[in-house]
Amino acid sequence: MGKTQLLINLSLNISLTIPVLYFTFDLSEFLLTNRFISSCSSIPVNKILQHNLAENEQQVLASIGTEFSKHKIFINDSYKSSLTAFKAQCKKQVEENGVQVIVVDCLQMMSSNRYRNSREHEIGQISGALKSIAKDLNVCLIASSQLSRAVESRKESKRPQLPDLRESGAIEQDADKVIFIYRPDYYEVFADEYGNSTAGLTEINLAKNRNGSLGTIMLMRDNHFTNFKDFEDYKNDFSFSKNRIDEIDTPF
What we know:
The protein is of the alpha/beta class and 252 residues long. It has helices spanning 3-14, 29-41, 45-49, 55-62, 64-68, 83-97, 119-137, 150-153, 170-174; strands at 20-24, 73-76, 101-105, 140-143, 177-182, 201-209, 215-221, 228-230. A four-stranded parallel β-sheet has the order 2-1-3-4, sandwiched between helices. Strands 5-6-7-8 form a four-stranded antiparallel β-sheet.
């Protein structure tokens, strides 16, 4: 659905004013950095990695360092198997670099030293640990999660629901907010009920919000999957407050 790309877009926007610590357990630091560069430059990441760039794209990349330096982002691709080391790194970054937002991509790629024989209990422990870190360090912690296969097997709407969170109900219980991504064209739904094209349409559904209302906003994904942008053709019945992060003491 593009959860990593959404996290990248969020991190880039937040990090212009607030330091962000981004933990990646799926991609290496090198590959993730190139995804960030791709998002900043709107150049497809495969063209950057393959050095297959047109002259104008080379000029854009030549100046991207100045643009990227405006963002306060710290990337870490380790601490996968130790929650103690993970928390210590978070605390260090908060104290030394003033990090206020921690991103984890993704929760299921983490592991702990307990409940090795029960993945559900292990995910529950990890979810609880992330909640504890958010409260103890007074930071906003954003974690992506995989969904169960139940979504694919449903004959009705493929829009994710809270029970679809993979391997543990603890994620739903611990999280202050749960946001789902849904792209109709992924499931070959190319028009809505009014006949409007859904090409590039991305629904961002706030399915749980402990401190506010629920709702859905529509975004547009560009053709190269580098950015999400406002979808002006749709009137959203809901919007996120741009200053919300300043209003919450201990979000998760």
